């Protein structure tokens, strides 16, 4: 896959949960292409250190304290971009957690019938409601971009088609709270893309692959740089690129 299809000089990108992992590598990849990247991090000091690291590598980087699960932080993010840039070109909704299991490489136990409702609510708050709230708040700024791009980090585990197919390689991974929240973010992608179909904004879900992160575990097939490839692709789509799709590397996944 070619890493990009456009030059990002002058573009402003916001990557949530970007002080480590896939988010950091996504921010680094966009910065390499010329974008000014803003790191969203729950820990303000970690965010500053990450931005400093990218600056030392020769990139344009900033950071803001941001927890997608905190409405005041989402509102503050809008004010930051509105006051500093008056627009936003790229939003990568990267922040997320898996509360069902510590790692998907562990033995998976289907707890759907006994799943604590609070765990389910917590998963949706972080992986769905927070993402939706942030996107809605930032949408007026994305509308001011000449080529707005919204990237929703999903997972192949959110594919209802593959979850329902006994022949699918993910059929046995029934981490209910995580999978359901990712399926919900996919629905958000479809609906928002249709609403924005007559604008310059493209909205896509992405599956990063099985990546060696805190969620993916140390037996995963991809490193974090490889795991950022699809997010970068979605963030740099040309005018004739897809919108309302579930992207994975150079292809797509079934909903």
From TrEMBL:
Keywords linked to the UniProt accession: NADP, Oxidoreductase
Q: Which Pfam families match?
A: adh_short (PF00106)
- InterPro entries per UniProt: NAD(P)-bd_dom_sf, Sc_DH/Rdtase_CS, SDR_fam
Q: Which PROSITE patterns match?
A: ADH_SHORT
Task: Supply the SUPFAM superfamilies for this chain.
Answer: NAD(P)-binding Rossmann-fold domains (SSF51735)
- NADP found in the keyword field: yes
The similarity comment for this entry is: Belongs to the short-chain dehydrogenases/reductases (SDR) family.
The protein here is known as SDR family NAD(P)-dependent oxidoreductase
């Amino acid at each position: 896959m070619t890493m990009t299809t456009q030059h990002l000089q002058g573009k402003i990108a916001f990557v949530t949960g970007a002080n480590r992992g896939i988010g950091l590598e996504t921010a680094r990849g966009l910065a390499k292409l010329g974008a000014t990247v803003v790191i969203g991090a729950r820990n303000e000091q970690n965010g500053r250190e990450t931005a400093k690291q990218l600056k030392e590598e020769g990139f344009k980087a900033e950071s803001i304290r941001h927890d997608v699960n905190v409405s005041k932080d989402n509102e503050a993010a809008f004010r930051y971009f509105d006051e500093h840039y008056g627009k936003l070109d790229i939003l990568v909704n990267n922040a997320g957690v898996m509360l069902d299991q510590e790692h998907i490489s562990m033995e998976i136990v289907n707890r759907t019938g006994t799943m604590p409702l609070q765990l389910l609510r917590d998963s949706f708050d972080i992986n769905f409601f927070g993402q939706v709230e942030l996107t809605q708040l930032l949408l007026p700024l994305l509308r001011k971009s000449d080529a707005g791009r919204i990237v929703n980090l999903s997972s192949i585990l959110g594919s209802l088609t593959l979850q329902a197919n006994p022949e699918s390689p993910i059929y046995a991974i029934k981490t209910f709270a995580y999978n359901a929240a990712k399926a919900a973010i996919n629905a958000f992608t479809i609906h928002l893309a249709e609403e924005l179909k007559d604008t310059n904004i493209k909205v896509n879900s992405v599956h990063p692959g099985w990546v060696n992160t805190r969620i993916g575990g140390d037996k995963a097939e991809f490193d974090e740089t490889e795991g950022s490839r699809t997010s970068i692709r979605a963030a740099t789509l040309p005018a004739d690129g897809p919108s309302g799709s579930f992207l994975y590397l150079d292809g797509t996944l079934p909903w």
